[in-house]
Write a structure and sequence with these properties.
Protein name: CobQ/CobB/MinD/ParA nucleotide binding domain-containing protein
Structural class: alpha/beta
Strand content: 5-15%
Number of strands: 7
CATH class of the largest domain: Alpha Beta
CATH architecture of the largest domain: 3-Layer(aba) Sandwich
Distance between the termini: 66 Å
Order of helices and strands: HEHEEHEHEHEHHEHHHH
Number of domains: 2
Strand order of the largest sheet: 3-2-4-1-5-6-7
Helix content: 55-70%
Length: 291
């Protein structure tokens, strides 16, 4: 009897241990699925796609794409522009595509887990929009950022861009405007006075998503970058102390070196100044990644 009791106890213990092992194996088998589900949910929550556009060239679309959005969101930057310089001029890593290749870009948008910024040049706007309409592709973009300047044509085309994309089904609350090349600090030149066409449209259409605080100034940075031969990123990250170098070149009578160094020093200072405006504009855009 005692041995039988011990045997029964042993069998019971064996069954208990077996049950525990089975439960543990089940938990281990389920854990990868749980981790995957968590990773997928987190990845999907972080996906965001932004279209930066406008129907007039040289208003600053690439400036906003490369210097305001991409550095703060990260991810991938696509350029759709067959005529003008794109965001590469600012030192950004750019993936160039053709307006007619919207299908391939859509595939990339679906498969990537990173934020995407699409810099759409004015020369390719019509083709791109036609492709969007045919593919019903307005809604995959979380935001549309329309960049305009103070010219009457720039403002009128910004409104035209807005109305065109609205007709394709883009909800009003997904639009953002950047008021570029504004004059800052002039008492008699308030923002709404510099962009009268846009603000007149807003008075007639109260839901028009125009924010007078979302602006960038007319700035000497880009001339300085051209003269120094630097990209914005290079000038912004430049930690060189130029004053003693310039003084040394002057004392040695090396005018060419002194001028070159002075231009780099100016680009360095203007890049730091402009970066503050870029940060301000990003905050006013109120871009909200889902993560």
């Amino acid at each position: 009897m005692p041995s039988g009791g011990a045997g029964g106890h042993a069998q019971s213990q064996t069954r208990s241990n077996s049950t525990k092992r089975e439960r543990k194996m089940s938990e281990v088998q389920q854990r990868p699925n749980e981790v995957t589900a968590q990773a997928v949910a987190k990845t999907l929550a972080g996906k965001i796609a932004i279209l930066v556009t406008g129907q007039v060239g040289m208003t600053g679309k690439s400036t906003v794409s490369a210097n305001v959005l991409h550095p703060r969101l990260g991810g991938r930057l696509f350029s759709v522009d067959s005529v003008n310089q794109d965001a590469k001029q600012y030192g950004a890593e750019v993936e160039a595509i053709f307006a007619a290749d919207l299908h391939e870009m859509r595939v990339e948008m679906l498969r990537t887990s990173e934020p995407i910024v699409v810099d759409l040049g004015a020369s390719d706007f019509t083709t791109f929009v036609q492709q969007m309409a045919a593919a019903n592709m307005a809604r995959p973009f979380n935001y549309v950022v329309i960049v305009t300047d103070t010219s009457r044509r720039g403002q009128e085309e910004a409104i035209g861009t807005y109305e065109t994309l609205c007709r394709l089904g883009m909800p009003t609350d997904r639009f953002r405007f950047v008021l570029n090349k504004a004059t800052i600090g002039a008492r008699d030149r308030a923002i709404h006075q510099q962009f009268p066409v846009l603000f007149a449209y807003k008075r007639a259409n109260p839901n028009f998503p125009l924010n007078e605080n979302c602006y960038l100034p007319d700035h000497g940075l880009f001339r300085a970058l051209h003269e120094s031969g630097q990209t914005f990123k290079e000038a912004l990250n430049d930690r060189t102390g130029y004053d003693p170098l310039i003084t040394t070149a002057d004392l040695e009578g090396d005018d060419a070196t002194a001028i070159t160094l002075s231009r780099k020093a100016l680009a360095q200072a203007l890049a730091a100044s402009m970066e503050e405006y870029f940060e301000h504009a990003y905050k006013e855009l109120d871009i909200q990644p889902k993560r």
